[in-house]
Design goal:
With 242 residues, this protein is α/β, with parallel strands linked by helices. The protein is built from eight helices and seven strands, in the order E-H-E-H-E-H-E-H-E-H-E-H-H-H-E. A seven-stranded parallel beta sheet has the order 3-2-1-4-5-6-7, with helices on both faces.
Length: 242
């Protein structure tokens, strides 16, 4: 599953899942453009320097109008990974419209804009990969995540329709739906409830082992590589058998 000579654009690169993907893809030979928030530029530059053929770009995914020209100016992108996500946990009634729209923009609208930016060169070469991050939460068994789950539903629809429209141009579009992954985001959201949450996850999973970021990275490597060239339009769950 070599990615030698391939240019990968990875959003949300400095989160737990993003770092694991960047490390795995770099080891597979990819050239990486790592995208995350502008205020993390110093941290991002250090992380990129620890990898081979990697560079960091600080962009706010909320600023949709600025995204397309910046990304279109990059070198040819062979693989786009829409990994970035904004997640907030609280009761439905407590969300403002602004908070709802922020999560939709970052979690799905930005993926639409980024896909528009990279697909012209993919079409010209007759080949490309787009990997969108969806979520186990679409199963409807999670409270307190209404904007997040709604945004991931939009991402699933985007995946299915883009796969159909872009397939004739040799562009494969798939989704990854992780289950509950041990991550910094998990610790931040659940705080002092972390042990209770961990017990609930293992009770519901068929496999009584927590999912680690490296497990997600291995799946992303497969979908980025030629080994998955006949897979498109799929939402692939990696949730420990929920």
């Amino acid at each position: 599953m070599s990615l030698t000579g391939k240019h990968v654009l990875l959003t949300g690169a400095l989160g737990s899942l993003g770092r694991a993907q960047a490390q795995t893809l770099s080891e597979a030979g990819a050239h990486l453009t790592l995208l995350d928030r502008p205020e993390l530029a110093e941290e991002g530059a250090k992380f990129a320097a620890s990898l081979t053929n990697s560079a960091y770009v600080g962009l706010d995914l909320n600023a949709l109008d600025a995204l397309k020209p910046r990304i279109a100016a990059l070198p040819v992108v062979d693989v786009l990974i829409n990994n970035a996500a904004l997640i907030i946990n609280k009761p439905f009634e407590a969300f403002s419209v602004v908070e709802y729209e922020d999560q939709v923009r970052v979690n799905s609208s930005a993926a639409f804009v980024l896909a528009q930016a990279v697909t012209p060169t993919m079409k010209a070469r007759g080949y490309g990969k787009i990997i969108n991050f969806c979520s186990l939460t679409l199963n409807g068994r999670w409270d307190g995540y209404v904007p997040y789950v709604a945004s991931k539903g939009a991402m699933l629809g985007l995946t299915k329709t883009l796969a159909r429209e872009l397939g004739p141009h040799g562009i494969r579009v798939n989704a990854v739906s992780p289950g509950a992954v041990v991550s910094d985001a998990e610790a931040r959201v659940f705080g002092d409830r972390l042990q209770q949450y961990n017990d609930w996850i293992l009770e519901n999973q068929s496999l009584k082992v927590r999912i680690e970021p490296r497990h997600i990275a291995d799946l992303v490597l497969f979908l980025s590589s030629p080994a998955s060239d006949l897979i498109s339009g799929q939402d692939i769950g990696i949730d420990g058998g929920w």
